[in-house]
Amino acid sequence: MNESKYFHIDQLLLDSENPRHVFMGSQSEIIAYLIENENIKELAKDIAQKGALSPFNAGGLLSVEGEPGKYWVLEGNRRVCALKLLNNPDLAPASSKKYFERLVANAVQIPTNFFCHVFANREEAKEWLASRHGDFKGGAGLKPWSAVQSARFFEKKEHSMAVTILQFALREGIIDEDRAHRIVTTVSRMFSTPQARDTFGIVTGRSNGTVLINVELTEFAVVLAEYLADIENPELNVGSRSTKEDRIGYREILAQKGKLPKTKLDHTIDILTGTVSKIETGNVSVAKPGSRVTGNSPVSGASVDAGGKAQPESKPIRTPPARDKARKLIDYSLQIRPEKIRAVFLELKNKLDVQETPYSAAALLRILIELSCDHYILNHAETIVFNDGGKSFGVNEKSPLRIKILGIAHHIHQSNSNLIDAKQFAALQNECPEAKTNAGGLNLLHNIMHNYSHSITAVHVIAAHDNFKPFIQALWHN
């Protein structure tokens, strides 16, 4: 450690790499997130009433490269956030500003300094952070990191799948946040077993944070809800003390209940984004749990379907790796005359590396789609009408993007089914579901622009683009 002393609050920057949240680039974004998710109001109230921070808890800092006198807060982000808001309530989102102004008006005293240790680098700090936050049984007076947050800090890849699955369960209202935090390791244990993943229709590995399934999302939600309820039933042995045999045998329990997914798809679905990827099936059989596979020989004791009927199992389906690792999002040419739209297309095609800049690529992809839709509408004199759920919508420039895409796609399909066939139109409908769900490529692109806590990878963007590709090409067909 370099030094320990008091630092003025204005010298301190909230850490963009804090395990309490995903990477965030701006201080205002971090403040908004901490207020919403990490009990900052309660902490600020306590500080305002006492007029001081606890003398037992020092902060941990790291010098900001290229900015003398500025420091990243490695330990104490909640306290620093509370102090910043008490010293300047204008930093709070509009909805919370008055709350902090009232605290300031009634405060005994507002501290402006924070006693901290300065570390030479993140690795030096990591050992101390681990001992401080890694034990969930201790830390009285601190808000411990959740299992999800600890998984981020310790980079526990074995929990990556469980974290994603629980995020899906939270979004769908299957469980609450407190329970999700408690059962991360239990869920991780279940899906560490390949046969258990196959039971749920999961085709990705246990350490993969992007969870792909080859069954319908609705069926996956049903079987997941059943499993999360069964964890609490000691007679089923699928909780924290389950054995490999218990986890494999759980398939038969689900089959008896009629909860097994019934539909095997010819594509995969990302459970968080709903994006669809084409898949290639293998012809190598997978053994019954506990046996081994040799070539293409039949396997005794194959799995059973929901009705209890024996069925051969196939090799777990994987997404073709070539596109997942693609550097360029667009690998085709289009004749686009409007200068602005052509510039956006060429930037995506020639300049952006989607592996390095997935957020920029996603944002430009959304812009390309919307501008292309507007150009199509302006250049078709006839009225474009879209029928959705018994309602008819006239499609124009002011229509929601979902209505534009589906209305134009239907118009093209009716005019020339060689450009967008029935299967492609159905796929577009899957990519553009109603707003009540977060599934689909369109919602992924929307969340990039409007949801500060939404995280993506290059794989998500590539899958979204590939699903919209026939539509984009049809828009600019000459």
UniProtKB/TrEMBL annotation:
Residues 287-323 are annotated as: Disordered. InterPro entries: ParB/Sulfiredoxin_sf. It comes from the Bacteria. This is ParB/Sulfiredoxin domain-containing protein. It comes from Neisseria canis.
